[in-house]
Design goal:
This is Holo-[acyl-carrier-protein] synthase. By secondary structure, the protein is of the alpha+beta class. The protein has four helices and five strands. The mean pLDDT is 95.
Length: 120
């Protein structure tokens, strides 16, 4: 049974501008394991990766019903690719399965998160 669903749309140029200003968005949004992946990529892919994780965590917080804040923060959610390259939510505060989809264009990243309650 679906507990919650959330979507988010983020402009890649917004993330690129924040990175160009030298602000600490990667440290704020990405867990240490995600930061290790981020560091291995060239700049264009870093922007896509960071925008995707930012957007997916925003979508997660909407599905959770709280938004990003005191109840759930960026560091409470970890999204890593499996051995096939599919992003998976590997750590999160919800006590059921969590599903994520991340899709990019040249200008946007769109994400969806579904939280399930009960057995699969």
């Amino acid at each position: 049974m679906i507990y919650g669903t959330g979507i988010d749309l983020t402009e890649l140029s917004r993330i690129q501008t924040i990175l160009a200003k030298g602000l600490k968005l990667p440290e704020k949004v990405l867990t240490p394991a995600e930061q290790a992946v981020f560091a291995r990529y060239p700049l264009k892919r870093q922007i896509e990766f960071l925008a995707g994780r930012f957007s997916a965590k925003e979508a997660y917080s909407k599905a959770y019903g709280t938004g990003i804040g005191a109840a759930v923060g960026f560091q409470d959610i970890e999204i890593l690719d499996n051995q096939h390259g599919k992003p998976e939510i590997t750590r999160h505060p919800f006590d059921g399965p969590a599903w994520v989809s991340i899709s990019h264009t040249d200008t946007f990243v769109m994400t969806q998160v579904i939280l399930e309650r009960g057995n699969l």
